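quick one, 854 residues, struct below
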Amino acid sequence: MNASPRVVIIGAGIVGANLADELAQLGWANTLVVEQGPLAIPGGSTSHAPGLVFSSNPSKSMTEFAQYTIDKLTSLTGPDGRGSFLPVGGLEVATTEERLQDLHRRAGWNRSYGVEAHVIDADECAKLFPMLDRDMVLGGLLTPGDGLALAAKGTQLVIDRARAAGVEFRDRTTVTDIETTGGRVSAVIAGEDRIPADIVVSCAGFWGPKIGEMVGTTIPLLPLGHQFAWTTEVPSLVGKNEPPAGAQAPILRYQDKDLYYREWGERIGIGSYAHRPMPVDLDTLRTYSPEEITEEVMPSSLDFTPEDFVREWEASQELLPELAQTQVQRGFNGIFSFTPDGGSLVGQSREVDGFFVAEAVWVTHGAGIAKAVAELIALGRSNTDLSGIDLNRFEDALTTPEYVSETSQQNFVEIYDVIHPLQPRVSPRDLRLSPFNEQQKALGAFFLETNGWERPHWYEANAALLNELSEEWKAPPRDEWADRFHSPIAAVEAWKTRTNVAMYDMTALKRFEVKGPGAGELLHGLTTSSMLRKPGAVSYTLLLDEAGGITSDITVAILDEETYQVGANSNIDFASITRAAKHQSAADPSRWATVRETTPGTCCIGLWGPLAREVISQVSADDLSNDGLKYFRTKQITLGGIPVTAMRLSYVGELGWELYTSADLGHRLWDVLWEAGRDYGLIAAGREAFNSLRLEKGFRSFGSDMTSEHEPVQAGLGFAVKASKTDDFRGKAALADRAAAATQKLTCLTLDRREDVVLGSEPVYLMSSSAGTTEAEVGTASATGRTPASTGGADGYVTSAAYGYSIGKSIAYAWLPNTLSVGDGVEIEYLGRRVPATVTAEPIFDPEMTRLKG
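---
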């Protein structure tokens, strides 16, 4: 076992200890875990964590991490024969109608991902948590499998098991530097000690940014104080729970007031997110010697600030009236890590090989994420998709100290808020603007924000066209939740794209250039398509991991023999291809390739629609006929005197081009096309229409429709794996077996009733014929004439959804059993009610591709 690479893990909290253990389970025991505090009480967030484990999460991966953490902590037993998890259940209560609706949505997330969950009435809530003021509560979400992680105990048990497997733990050791050689970690420096290392993993919690600085890797997190307090003895708890911190009642969330509660022996523990954000400056944070650290005094425990707890204490006594008989006995402000999007930070550094990170991980997901990182290190991939928490997902502009501080504090404030899937951040805004922003504002663009980009979702200038819209193109009214960040103007923009011509701002599409004599060979070995083709070719292709899972879908245009333009999904693609280029260039300098970000210096307009060729011919003498520029080809043209790279492709399923030029010429490009299209009814269109049109064509969106957990054939992307490509590429060897073993596929659904819409992440249930079944027997399913084919959890879940204006129905894609056939019925659970839907052949619109290839 000691033949495995030498791994040094920095931090022995719940993540670092579990990572060492998980590596040992995979046969990697040549591992050292260093901890600056005493091993029994390291003094980080694990040492003071209240231990609440709530599984509910819109992310499938995060839900799986929570479930694994529960399972592992339950299985770990100490000398007393008891595990380190108390399965008391979880209860979230609603005191407003909006919150109650949100609990139905959260219950849907749980059922989508196989977690038992029930929305219960106020009486049942009061039975489960007798202290509750039943009259304040409208209902609650019960997750019976949730509970309390005994984090400190569980971590010690994990350490014991890892030690027995050969892992070394060294406490009272402060890392002062990390040595690199040839762009790779080579040693960890702890004072006078040099510890050789092949791999270094930062599990240092809120100290992570300091560790990252040692190797020039930004770890974008902000340490923030979070209040937790204990009451004095509660009369009804006397003699009920095992001291000192036992519990029987469910963990309780009162999210309408940003509070949570747990029984703590004969007391109640209260956590609050209702106070002002309290950022912590690591440079001024008091340091403790290991001898000074106790269960109540540690670096991660700041002094309690009673003035920030006044309203929270009043709200607690209102919800739990018995607390009026108690006082706040003591409290502290514990330090936790927050990030710009609220997610964890996991993965390998883009800058330094062998430097991995597992930071901003809460106890809820600690063991699960540790398992995933162990797989990433030992196997080269995680069995659970990590794209949503990848360290490299943030653009550089989103990792500055100022941005991290503001957005992390905002995430703290909003942690328990009801957040709509499309809800943009309030600030900072106008950070990343396309060259067309001025013209878009003049047209009344309604902007939403993504990755710092301001992106129009519709244009008020098109509202006047609503009067021309026929009934068949109009969408029915929506419920209040679905109506947020929606406009009926999107119907006009979809209609004009399908019948006339429209301009879409595609500037926010991630782009980079791979250049050099080894560029083609590099991309050829990473993708499922041939990259050794003549200049002018464009490919839609996939990036896979070694197990054949989809890690991204990209578009690659060969501009010349040594220059490739990559249209990617995120900064993760840029990081992975940059790393691969570095390795190839080092292995053979004659096959060097460089990867250069081009997004900020360029811009793009999608010009699409039946009249697109008429518009562009007004301002270009270049041959853009079907023969002059075939589908999925590119060439350099001139538009109104502007040099443009034109690519014949379309994400909305209509004739047209993606038109790229340098950012300085973008403003002019927009004006040239706008003037040329004046006589053809050209409009500007936004992201809402765009998303509708792409689903009508069955075009996938990575991260929503497919991830590394899915293989190409079942994701409907088998065509992107070119049978003619006989050369090896990453993941090729695993594809056949993985496809044969797949039991689910990405399935196109249309909703049966025109007035129904769904938004994504909803659970889906298979149905069977139920002629003669009464409404009492099948509940909400009876209106469809179908009954559930199974009485267990959900059979699948929705990925992407939108109203299809061209077909007059809502569309939803969902991962479902691959035994389903076109015409089969299913039901989607939307905010607590069942919505009937039918499996539909795809693509729904223009299956012959005649419009695209026009």
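The chain has a mean pLDDT of 94.
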